[in-house]
Amino acid sequence: MPEQFSPVRLFITLVVIIFVTEVTVMALLPILIPHRIHPLAEAIIDAEMKFGDSIPSGTYLDMAANLPLVDPAKVLCPVLMIRGEFDGNSTNADLLDFFRQLPNGDRQFAILPNTAHSAGYGSNRHLLYYAMRQFLDAPAPVAG
Fold it and tell me: In which element (H, E) is residue 8 found?
């Protein structure tokens, strides 16, 4: 198998396609043309290969393996946490554990039905926009 079609390079190419939004997937299908790798995929592969040549590798794996990235007790601002029902990056239990540790009482947790991780690009993005608008337009709490 030529170097450009090694399992690692093919895996990274497929990851690139998977994480691209529904809007641009069709534009990137030429990446899969046999005996050729699209220049955009080649650039992403080159950038990721410096992190290792085993599967999986790279910054995304580092992030996913070390969640949460922040200490919830240090997040003092109002928070809207949104999860797509079919988001494979985290579970409701993981996120609710983080949510419960937030010190600010001005917080909301929403699960968007029939939605995956990239909610802003999916067919139900209007649900994301609605949740965000409700959160941002909420009246300020009155101190008792």
Answer: helix 7-19
Domain boundaries, the chain: 3-65, 72-137
SS3 47: helix
- The rounded distance, in Å, linking the Cα atoms of 139 and 135 is 9
Whole-number average pLDDT of the chain: 75
Could you tell me the two tokens for 72?
A: 């919830």
Query: Could you say which DSSP state residue 79 is in?
Result: E
| CA 68-71-75 angle, 5° bins | 115
**What digits encode the pLDDT tens for the residues 37-88?**
667 767 777 777 777 666 555 666 666 777 788 899 999 989 999 999 998 8
Burial 46-75 (b: 16+ CB within 10 A, else e): eebeeeeeeeebbeebeeeeeeeeeeeeeb
Structure tokens belonging to residue 42: 């080649």
Give the predicted TM-score (pTM) of the model: 0.58
Tell me the CA distances in angstroms from 16 to 7, 11, 52, 68, 142, one per residue in order. 14, 9, 16, 23, 47
